[in-house]
Amino acid sequence: MHDIVFREFEDHLNGNASAAFHDHLRTCESCRGEVEGITGITSLLHELAPAADGNDAPQPSPAFYAALANRIVETEASRSWGLFSIGDLFFRRVAFASLILLACLGSFLVTREASEGGADAASIMAQHDAISSHSDSADRERLLVTLAEYR
Amino acid sequence: MDYEDTPEGALVRRAQEGDEAAFREVVTRYQSKVFSIIHGIVRQRNDVEDIAQQVFAKVYFSLRNFDFRSSLITWIYKITVNECFDYLRKKKVRKLVYESDMSEDESRRVENSEPPTDRSVRTDTTLARRDYIVKLLDRVSDEEKQLLMLKEVEGYSVEELASMLKMNENTIKVKLFRARQKLVKAAQRLDRLPAAV
Ligand SMILES: [Zn+2]
């Protein structure tokens, strides 16, 4: 390819090439062929423009950031073989907060059961059995909701 | 003014130092743009959010390596385009595995299940053109892909690219031209292998 075509090709795509450029193309078959090839391929690239086919891109949902935070925490955990060895990155706070929340909730439930019963370990355990698994699953659900909201 | 000294540069610096609110602001600022780039390339609405999550997870994990030599969106753009091509490569592998599981009769039944209408023929042509250019782009370097996409898909001028990428205009022109030539060469090679298209 001759220098003038190489130099002015981007201008040519914008419709700003000089008269000398066009004169050259008229007389040089080799450059003309190459310019046609490159121009054709370039037009194909426009197919990738957003909404080139009239379909608008989907919009991020309000939960996008929460899902992203989740993925980051999970990736960090899997990279570092556990939450306690992850680096000093800020999503560590989210992971630790989840653990602390779990621990607090656990001790709160034990304290509440102990104070409500006001009895010895055996009666607390008996009371716990009587409360049944329904209350346990409700607590778990509440915890999940809290974690999901937190993230 | 250096990019590092702009308000956005300061935002990035805060995110690099571990400020979660700053990272959240980066995500909020560019999530729609990232969705739109991904959709432009992969056209699978259901997968856009998943790829976008992967993009921002990569942004998060490599933000400390961001050196302010380009603008943040230019850097995110490159990550997004690479992620889309990774996705398409993986999808192609899955498709090949799926097709190899089908018998010839099954393949024929799938192919003949819907008689083509005018609209579907048009859609097929558009899809074929898109698949073709995606295949060609996969054969140039990441930098060349990014340049071609920023110029032809996003519509930036050579001057704007020079400023965004901190290169002189002539360098941009030369790089663009070489990238375009590579696409043409890739097309010639691909056309000689019709089975691979
Ligand atoms: Zn010539």
In short:
In chain A, 74% of the residues lie in helices and 0% in strands.
What does this structure look like?
The complex is a heterodimer of chains A (151) and B (197). Chain A has 6 helices and no strands. Chain A has helices at 3-13, 19-27, 29-45, 64-80, 91-117, 121-150. In chain A, helix 1 (3-13) crosses helix 2 and helix 4 packs across helix 5. The longest helix of chain A has 30 residues, at 121-150. Chain B is mainly α. Chain B folds into 3 domains: 1-91, Rna Polymerase Sigma Factor, Chain: A; 94-138; 141-197, Orthogonal Bundle (Arc Repressor Mutant, subunit A), CATH 1.10.10.10. Chain B has helices at 7-16, 20-42, 45-62, 72-101, 104-112, 118-137, 142-153, 158-165, 169-191. In chain B, helix 2 (20-42) crosses helix 3 (45-62). The N and C termini of chain B lie far apart (47 Å). The complex binds zinc ion.
The separation of the N and C termini of chain B measures 47 Å
Number of separate structural domains of chain A: 2
Oligomeric assembly: heterodimer
The proportion of residues in beta strands of chain A is under 5%
Low-pLDDT parts of chain B are 110-116
Q: Report the count of strand segments of chain A.
A: 0
The kinds of small molecule bound in this structure are:
zinc ion
Q: How far apart are the first and last residues' alpha carbons of chain A, in Å? A: 58 Å
Number of helices of chain B: 9
Largest sheet of chain B: none
Shape summary of chain B: globular
Described by the principal axes of the CA atoms, the overall outline of chain A is elongated
SSE order of chain B, one letter for each helix or strand: HHHHHHHHH
State the name of the first-level CATH class of the largest domain in chain B. Answer: Mainly Alpha
CATH superfamily (homologous) name of the largest domain in chain B:
RNA polymerase sigma factor, region 2, helix turn helix motif
Q: pLDDT average of chain B, as an integer? A: 85
The amount of helix of chain B comes to over 70%
